[in-house]
């Protein structure tokens, strides 16, 4: 069961609901989004019915949810959500009414490389910078990222370009550090089922970009989002980056069908990562175009000023002709589907 609080609900209203639920032996998990607060109830449903929660101050509605992912389900939240990324005054939307391009280097290597990649991303229409400071790699001998120094570089590039940035956190012990620098925390495909990490980022108070695990079903992916939401955060953006199949032509198989399926199931925004799914730069623009066509709320792509010298995933990083082609697709295709660039949207209120 889920209690949806009205936008005008006070902390006292929320506390009153929690107290009522706990008074009959239930548990109440408070999750706060940008525009509303939702309280997920765990316990005896029948005892909750007798509480008459709808009559309490600040309560907008009460729903009995059949989906296992109660807080992120569309059963209680019919309208799809918009997540705002960045500091007040320069926030960028990710949601159903706009189209958001997130771009930047897969790994932060130096201040010069990062700011040049950010400028390239902006020229293509990007409004959010991506960059890896901590890099979980298949090989322990591969470049693992600059760590805290990488976060400092990203923060300095944010000041230089005005772009909020998203970066991956790979260990629950680093969540506080990463959240103190980043505008958005990324959970990578390898960590989608790291439940302790999911809970930690849910408590950090920053928007989260949650990638689908390479072997995860859509329900498992949404249950991972529920772990984050249950800890108090509803500002979650899902990211489809491909699933592992028998086909060796690409790194993973991009499941574009997940976009409409997810949009019919959850109110959370969903974007697509054509770079990490394909692993090849020649496929990024066609896959990005396909993602726009099926209704994705945005895409995230790798950009590097010198891909041949990149310390991480150079073969999939865009520059030159490919980046210009991406810019054309991002400029021309979303308006056909009734979307505007996230760069033109200003948050009201």
UniProtKB/TrEMBL annotation:
SUPFAM superfamilies hit by this protein: Aldolase
Start and end residues of each DAHP synthetase I/KDSA domain: 91-330
Record-given protein name: 3-deoxy-7-phosphoheptulonate synthase
GO process terms (BP): aromatic amino acid family biosynthetic process
InterPro entries to which the protein is assigned, alphabetical: Aldolase_TIM (IPR013785), Class-I_DAHP_synthase (IPR052899), DAHP1/KDSA (IPR006218), DAHP_snth_FXD (IPR041071), DAHP_syn_2 (IPR006268)
Lineage: Bacteria, Bacillati, Actinomycetota, Actinomycetes, Propionibacteriales
GO-annotated molecular function: 3-deoxy-7-phosphoheptulonate synthase activity; aldehyde-lyase activity
Domain DAHP synthase ferredoxin-like: 1-66
EC number of the protein: 2.5.1.54
Keywords in alphabetical order: Transferase
Xref: Pfam families: DAHP_snth_FXD, DAHP_synth_1
């Amino acid at each position: 069961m889920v209690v949806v609080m009205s936008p005008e609900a006070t902390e006292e209203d929320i506390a009153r609901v929690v107290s009522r639920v706990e008074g009959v032996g239930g548990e109440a998990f408070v999750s706060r989004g940008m525009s509303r607060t939702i309280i997920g109830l765990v316990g005896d449903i029948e005892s909750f019915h007798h509480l008459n929660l709808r009559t309490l101050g600040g309560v907008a509605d009460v729903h009995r949810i059949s989906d296992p992912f109660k807080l992120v389900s569309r059963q209680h939240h019919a309208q799809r959500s918009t997540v705002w990324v960045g500091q007040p005054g320069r926030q960028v939307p990710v949601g159903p009414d706009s189209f958001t391009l997130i771009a930047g280097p897969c790994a932060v290597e130096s201040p010069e490389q990062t700011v040049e990649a950010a400028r390239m991303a902006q020229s293509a229409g990007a409004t959010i910078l991506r960059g890896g400071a901590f890099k979980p790699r298949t090989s322990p001998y591969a470049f693992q990222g600059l760590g805290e120094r990488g976060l400092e570089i990203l923060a300095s590039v944010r000041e230089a370009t005005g772009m909020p940035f998203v970066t991956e956190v790979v260990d629950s012990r680093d969540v506080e550090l990463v959240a103190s620098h980043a505008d958005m925390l990324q959970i990578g495909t390898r960590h989608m089922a790291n439940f302790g990490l999911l809970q930690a980022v849910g408590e950090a108070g920053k928007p989260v970009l949650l990638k689908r695990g390479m072997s995860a079903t859509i329900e498992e992916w949404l249950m991972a989002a529920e772990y984050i939401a249950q800890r108090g955060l509803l500002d979650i953006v899902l990211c489809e980056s491909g699933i592992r199949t028998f086909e060796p032509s690409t790194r993973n198989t991009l499941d574009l069908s997940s976009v409409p399926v997810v949009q019919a199931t959850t109110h959370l925004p969903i974007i697509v990562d054509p770079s990490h799914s394909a692993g090849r730069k020649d496929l990024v623009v066609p896959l990005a175009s396909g993602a726009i066509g099926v209704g994705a709320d945005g895409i995230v792509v790798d950009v590097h000023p010198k891909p041949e010298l990149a310390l991480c995933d150079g073969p999939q990083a865009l520059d030159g002709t490919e980046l210009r082609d991406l810019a054309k697709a991002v400029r021309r295709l979303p308006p056909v589907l009734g979307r505007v660039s996230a760069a033109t949207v200003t948050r009201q209120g």
